[in-house]
């Protein structure tokens, strides 16, 4: 019991010492279906994973369509509809802000999942179930999850190794 209390206290102190980044807002530019740039910040939406830009999916007839490009284009359309407001919670391993973001009061990630252009990774199960039931977007046919697609299509290593990652 004492160990649990001590661990809980340590977690509370760590959270107090390392608070979430402050909210950010402004005009944004889409990178792909689940991330974008907001000023100088790179932002990744929490709770979703969208197809990669080069990824294709199958429709209900088995024909391939550019689901990754479609997801990015829809993200761009959403971002252009108004000022983006983000509540960052953390940073990922690439230095991007992990955030819940809205445009005009509408949750961007919820919209992407509800339209079948992203899968839920923890926050948007209801939207995903609705999109699945209605065979929207990626749920109309077959697709690899974005995680599996990335694993099967690794990015080529930079010519300069770690220097290339510093540059980006």
Automatic annotation (TrEMBL):
Residue ranges of domain TNase-like in the record: 32-141
SUPFAM superfamilies registered for this protein in UniProt: Staphylococcal nuclease
InterPro entries recorded: SNase_OB-fold_sf, Staphylococal_nuclease_OB-fold
PROSITE patterns: TNASE_3
PANTHER family: BLR1266 PROTEIN, EBNA2 BINDING PROTEIN P100
Identification of the protein by name: Thermonuclease family protein
Organism whose genome encodes this protein: Devosia neptuniae
Taxonomic classification: Bacteria, Pseudomonadati, Pseudomonadota, Alphaproteobacteria, Hyphomicrobiales
